[in-house]
């Protein structure tokens, strides 16, 4: 194994840029996707029929097509289509519309919104109606009931599943290397092409993703344990071999 290339500032710059882009994609897509998920879930539960049908159609398309196809559709399809619109390249939005980061964020946001929205919809429907009625009995308006009672209770119910979705999002980010965006995998590919080393760059990237997954899992687990309404689990000490009380 030859890792001497790690001391080269040229390759270090690639790796740092790839790591920063990976973390930014994860953060922006997670926040925007979870926000979209709330809207998608409520549109299907309480929205008017046209809005509910639209949310259902978008969810079905996103969940029924591969993520890589969606990424190609937005970057190579929509992106190239926008290039042909007269005046678009002279507008103030062209710097954003030609950036692969924008299309990657859009793709991951829609994916998180569709999958997490379906999870959140099931959780919202699982909240007992009596809890919302109790909020209205205390004088809360419908908006306050939703944001202070209904939504937090639903998130509490599906928080472990949402944690899994965030981990899947992290492991989906290497797909952006296919649209010429610098991420950790793209940095590894460049290093492989220039050093003719096959395994070492990939092993390094695998180790970085493993470390990121562990850190993300520990952080989200702390969120689960300290989420409002969640009681911490206390395990009583018992000698080894002593049967557990029923």
Automatic annotation (TrEMBL):
Coiled coil: none annotated. It is a multi-pass membrane protein. Its main location: membrane. Keywords: Amino-acid transport, Cell membrane, Membrane, Transmembrane, Transmembrane helix, Transport. It is found in: Cell inner membrane; Cell membrane. Residues 19-220 form the ABC transmembrane type-1 domain. InterPro entries: AA_ABC_transptr_permease_3TM, ArtM/GltK/GlnP/TcyL/YhdX-like, MetI-like, MetI-like_sf. One of its GO terms (molecular function) is transmembrane transporter activity. Pfam families: BPD_transp_1. CDD domains: TM_PBP2. One of its GO terms (cellular component) is ATP-binding cassette (ABC) transporter complex. One of its GO terms (biological process) is amino acid transport. Signal peptide: none annotated. PANTHER family: GLUTAMINE TRANSPORT SYSTEM PERMEASE PROTEIN GLNP (PTHR30614:SF20), MEMBRANE COMPONENT OF AMINO ACID ABC TRANSPORTER (PTHR30614). Belongs to the binding-protein-dependent transport system permease family. HisMQ subfamily. Part of the binding-protein-dependent transport system for glutamine; probably responsible for the translocation of the substrate across the membrane. This is ABC transporter permease subunit. It comes from Halomonas sp. H10-59. The lineage of its organism: Bacteria, Pseudomonadati, Pseudomonadota, Gammaproteobacteria, Oceanospirillales.
